Structures are given as C-alpha cells and as structure tokens.
Amino acid sequence: MTLLCSLAAIALRLNHTHLPPIEGLLVYGGAVLSAAFILAWAAEALQVDIAKGLAMAVLAFIAVLPEYAVDLYFASMAAKKPEYAQYAAANMTGSNRLLIGVGWSVVALCSVYAALRKRAPGEAKEPSPGVSLNDGYGIDLTILCLATLWSLTMPLFEHIALWNGAGLLILFGFYVWRVSGGADSEPELTGVASEIGALPKVRRRSTVALLLAIAAGTLLAAAEPFAESLIGAGEHLGVDRFLLVQWLAPLASEAPELLVATIFALHGHGSAGIGALLSSKVNQWTLLVGTLPMAYSLALGKPGALPLDPRQVEELVLTSSQSLLGVGVLLNGRLEAWEAVVLLLLFLVQLPFPQANVRYGLSLLYVLLAILLFIRYARYVPQHLRLTFRKDADSKE
After folding, report:
1. Helix boundaries (H) for the chain
2. DSSP annotation string for 290-331
3. Cα–Cα dist 275/258, whole Å
4. Theoretical Cys-Cys bridge with 270: which of 106, 114, 131, 391, CB 3.0 to 4.6 Å?
5. 337 Cβ contact partners less than 8 Å away, ≥ 6 residues apart
6. What 3-state class would DSSP assign to 130?
7. For residue 249, how many other CB atoms are within 10 A of its CB?
C-alpha cells in the first residue's frame, strides 16, 4: 500500500495531471507520508552496515528528508513570490516544535508506562520515573545548544542570511564528524526494518538502495504539488494557510519517525527513541535551517537573506526558546516524566493562542525554566563539553 501511494504520485506527475487542492492534498500528502515510512525503514536497516554513531546521524537525516523537500521548495519559491517566505519559516518552526513538544514528551511518557507495566507486584518504585539517554548524548546536546544560541541572531536581524546558514552548516559538519566515531553495537530494529536488516548482505543493501531511490523519486514528484495543495486547500477551506503549512506538513513528514520512536519506547527501548529524536532535532536545527537561505539565494540568482516578517520573528523566538528548554531538561541525561508533561503542556497551550504577546510570554517562560534547569544541572555541563570537543574523550565517558 505504501509503495502504491508513492508510485501513484510519481505517475500523476509524469502524466502532468493536475488535481484540485483538496484531492491534491490527500494524494500528494499521502505520498509524502509513504515516502517518510519508506525512508524510515531504509534508514533503520542501514544501521546494520555502518557505525552506530554515524548511523544515528544518517538515520535522523534521512528520516527528515520529506521535511527538507517541502521546506526547501518554499524557500526557493520565495525568490519569485515573496509571500512564500512565511511558509518556509512556518514549516521549519512547526517541525522543530513538534519534535520536542510532542515527540520527546510522548516517548518519555510511553517509556514510563512500559516500565510500570513490566514492574513486578511489590517491586520498589523507581525514585524518578523517566527515560535515560544512551552514552554519547552530550555531543548532540552541546551542538543543539550552540545551534539554538546561534539561531537567536535570526529574529534579531529579522532575516535568515547566508552567514546564519553557514554557521549552522559548520555545526552540522562538526556534529557528523564527532558522532561518526561512535562505538559499534547491535542495532535495535522493529517491523519492516527488522525484516530488511535480517536479509543477506547483498540483498539487504540492494533493498535499502531501491527503497531510498523510490522514496527520493516520490519526494521529487510530490513535494511541489503537496506544498501548493496545502496553500490552495487553506484558501478553499478558509483556514489560515500559515497554520496548515506549520502543522499539517510536519505531521505528514514526521509521523513515521515519531511512530517508530514511540514503538521503541513501548517495547522498553525509550533511550533509543529519544536518541533518534534528539539527533533529528539537531539535524533540523542545523542542516535544514542552514540550507534555507542557500536555496533562496540560488533561486534568486544572487546572495540574499530570507526575510522574516513580525509573525515569523515571534515564531522563531518561540521555537528557539523551546529548544533551549529542551537542552535544559536533558542536561542530566534523563527526561523525567514531569519534564515531559511540562514540555507537552507548554506545546499544547500555545496552539489556540496566536497572539504575539502570548507567544513572547511563553518564550520568556521557556527561557526562565531553561535557566533554572541549567543552574540545577550545571555540574553536567563540563562533561558534555569535554565529550564534544575532545575526540579522545569518547572512550572515557
């Protein structure tokens, strides 16, 4: 069924078939969702053939490719239609806030539920329910913190300039270099990915390559009509187009990744689920945001900065503030149940209140909570810095 959705979208584009906005949203949105599932299966199976640390980074990158395809389309179109700049920012901020506000929270709470379900009657309760992260998470956390601090320059200057993007891409390159030396271990695969990973070497690699090719073809075919259908459907239904782009597109592209992480958590592997989503957050906050001004400049035909209007500025401030709190809650290597609940509630409370003063008020609350957590967990900061900037520290942590 997944492959049929992908192939149908490719066939429609090759035949130059035009669909009305609502039908296009369903067909091409389904194709993007299908491509995301295919990419998730292939990326997970890829862990069998490459080192664990690099596998997590590659897995996270491949899993968010649908998000990249849609967002880069909006950024490039903004060079011809300036109103598309808001959609690039909407898609980027929505996907990043969804990862922390929903993804991290749900995985942590599912881990707590799985642990309670497995606990024997009369067994002592865990003093602080939550989910612990795997070794090496300090690298992801440090890069995420640096990228978050760097991202604050964008709302300050009211644009995403090439130098903003260059700084984020440098951080991404450093991140990939650091995690590529992680120790090997047996990957934890589930469902279709487990079946692919169990194939003989040649068949496994051929299957992964074929799935990646199909998914790439689907994204090339579906990204543009899906993005345009989102805007057209908003006009047709009388719904705010900004909100449709901000939440519906990320939900379609990230659903498989969130689903896989949740399944891991329910099977007692919450650390793997949180690790994958943390790596995805690093990917999105560095590589995705970093490439937006480059896509815009290439389409413009000269160096340019992707403009941010007041609404996008407040959305970016809120997203950066949430990211800072995300770093704070993970400083001690655990996402506690109460912290997961706070992240989820703060995410949900912002949805019905689009007013600027509410956005900035929530941003201030995120920052204040982050400062309190940084003070509480300050003793963990030196070890994260050592792990990140000293290659020889890998074996000591």
Report:
1. 2-14, 21-46, 52-63, 65-77, 85-98, 105-118, 137-151, 153-157, 162-179, 191-197, 201-237, 241-243, 249-266, 270-283, 289-300, 310-330, 337-350, 356-376, 381-389
2. HHHHHHHHHHHTS---EE--HHHHHHHHHHHHHHHHHHHHHT
3. 12
4. 131
5. 108, 109, 112, 129, 130
6. strand
7. 26
Cα–Cα dist 277/215, whole Å:
21
Residues 247-275 have pLDDT tens digits of 888 887 777 778 778 877 888 888 888 98
Taking the chain, what is the end-to-end CA distance rounded to the nearest angstrom? 45
Using alpha carbons only, what angle is made at residue 170 by residues 168 and 176, rounded to the nearest 5 degrees?
A: 105
Name the one residue in this structure whose structure tokens are 């909407």: 90
- Domain boundaries of the chain, sorted by first residue: 2-119+127-393
User: What CATH architecture does domain 2-119+127-393 belong to?
Assistant: Up-down Bundle (1.20)
Show the tokens assigned to 366. 């995120």
Which tokens in the block code for residue 216? 């790439």
Q: What percent of the chain has pLDDT over 90?
A: 42
Residues 39 and 63 sit within 8 Å (Cβ to Cβ): yes
Exposed, middle or buried by CB within 10 Å (0-12, 13-18, 19+), for 171?
buried
Percentage of the chain exceeding pLDDT 70: 89
Kindly report, residue by residue over 52-70, the tens digit of the pLDDT. 556 555 665 666 677 788 8
Any idea what DSSP says for residue 47? T
- Give the separation between CA 242 and CA 231, rounded to whole angstroms: 8
Question: Model-level pTM?
Answer: 0.85
**C-alpha to C-alpha distance for 285 and 231, rounded to whole angstroms:** 24
Average pLDDT, the chain: 85
Burial class of 245 by CB neighbour count within 10 A (0 to 12, 13 to 18, 19+): buried
Tokens of 79: 């060079």
